[in-house]
Amino acid sequence: MLSGQRVEHNKAGKRVAVDSRKRHPADFALWKAAKPGEPSWDSPWGPGRPGWHIECSAMSACYVSHKFDIHGGGIDLIFPHHENEIAQSWAADRESHISYWLHNGHVTNNNEKMSKSLGNFFTIRQITERYHPLALRHFLIGAHYRSPLNYSIAKLETSSDAVYYIFQTLEDCKDALSSFLQEDTEKKEKAPKINDAAKECIKKLNVEFQTKMSDDLQTPVILTGALQEALKFVNSSSKMLKKKMQKKTQLQLVQSLLEVEKEVRKVLNVLGLLSSLSYAEVLQQFKEKALKRAGLTEDEVLNLIEERRQARINKDFAKSDEVRTGLT
């Protein structure tokens, strides 16, 4: 089964005393007897409620039938919950089949599982009051879904910077291409071939994305590999377009930038790292979250920047460093 455990290796009564009413020590309850103060329903076996495992089989059968592609759940549910779910679903329908089981690791706090009982958890709403939702998403997919992920402000800051860089790169690309796209619309010229660097960039991005996503959703590799190379290409090409060059070379660079940017957007869309808002609007949201974390207004930041500039002019480098530390 899922966990690889064998029935003969489990010791009956080791953790919980064996109920004498069971036909076999490994049997689990499909129907729990009613307890005072708990919801209960009448049944041929007396008042009670569904067992923990049968709930999931019943919901699956009701909404997606006993056959479906992907079943998720926490890694702690593999045994006994999901194995029991498989057993009872097979008993109800011999055609029962789930193609893929995806068991996720937990987000931890100080390497302990977050839980209400320990009081060491944060809600998504609490986190997104200070960090952009896309930064949180980047943080979560920055670890493999089956691995535990320790909640870390430093890592959230890193993810926030990473997503800000993505959107700043896309915004700069849009600005760099705007005048050329307007010209192309008016002249309706045939699109030139893209350059070799763009071809290689697109090839690496597509191969890595398809390979790693097909290999158990290796999102951390995608975030740090060919996607970063593609973003660097977009960044450098956007800057290069501002320089003087031959018209033919310029048009080829424009087309190359368009094609690479399109492939980058495809990857980001699948990863859920795009937004329905404009790039500029998302960047503004990131700035507002950063100001909120720092407890500053935009005017106060501008004043500090000016204070640092004056300190550098006056060669008061200690003061300059002090202000810079405060800004970062």
From TrEMBL:
Alphabetic keyword roster: ATP-binding, Ligase, Metal-binding, Nucleotide-binding, Zinc
Domain of life the protein comes from: Eukaryota
Ranges where the record places region Disordered: 1-20
Entry-linked InterPro entries: Cys-tRNA/MSH_ligase, Rossmann-like_a/b/a_fold, tRNA-synt_1_cat_dom, tRNAsynth_Ia_anticodon-bd
Any one GO biological process: cysteinyl-tRNA aminoacylation
Cofactor(s) this protein requires: Zn(2+)
Gene Ontology terms: cellular component: cytoplasm
Database matches in SUPFAM superfamilies: Anticodon-binding domain of a subclass of class I aminoacyl-tRNA synthetases (SSF47323), Nucleotidylyl transferase (SSF52374)
Record GO terms (molecular function): ATP binding; cysteine-tRNA ligase activity; metal ion binding
Domain tRNA synthetases class I catalytic per the UniProt entry, residue ranges: 2-159
Protein name: Cysteine-tRNA ligase-like protein
The species this protein was found in: Trifolium pratense (Red clover)
